[in-house]
Amino acid sequence: MLSTALVAYALGSFPTAYLVGRFTRGIDLREAGEGNVGARNAFHEVGPWWGIAVTAVDIGKGAAVALLYGRSPLWQLSVGAAFLVIGHAYPVWLRFVGGKGVACAGGLSAALFPWSALVGAGASGIAWLLTRRFLPTLVTMCVLTFALAPLFGYQWPVMGVAFGAFALVAVKRVIDEPRMRRIEAETGWDRARGGTRV
Fold it and tell me: I need a surface site. Which of 61, 82, 84, 175 has the fewest CB within 10 A?
């Protein structure tokens, strides 16, 4: 169990968005935009293509955990999924101030439910073309991946593990709320639309 937790934590804790912000614009995403070390903040504060790159890497982190433990006993997959999100949310490298883990949990789910994720990816592409906004695109992908998973015969216990990963994301979102509101007030972040007000 310990080795599973450590491997998943190490994968989750790789600070993709932070490194992109630091090395491309010299900013600390913990204190910029919405104050979140994640793909959406990178998208708005560093640039759309960088945000997409962060999304891809963070999805890859989740997919790696699914590939490592997807055929293991359910408890091992559960531990891996939990520590994936915990690592992303509380990376030791950033003094335990990380992102929420949406893309990581999404990557885990996509690798566990590839056929429904494929349909979700197509729909999310349409959402992007219609809105040109990061959040609706990602939400479309996640919702359809889960909603269609039973139709492709994926097992409910495995779906429960993926749901659990998103539940941890939600908990982290609640914990982050006071800090993010403080940073948003300082930066002028527009929570409704995303991005900094000018």
Answer: 175
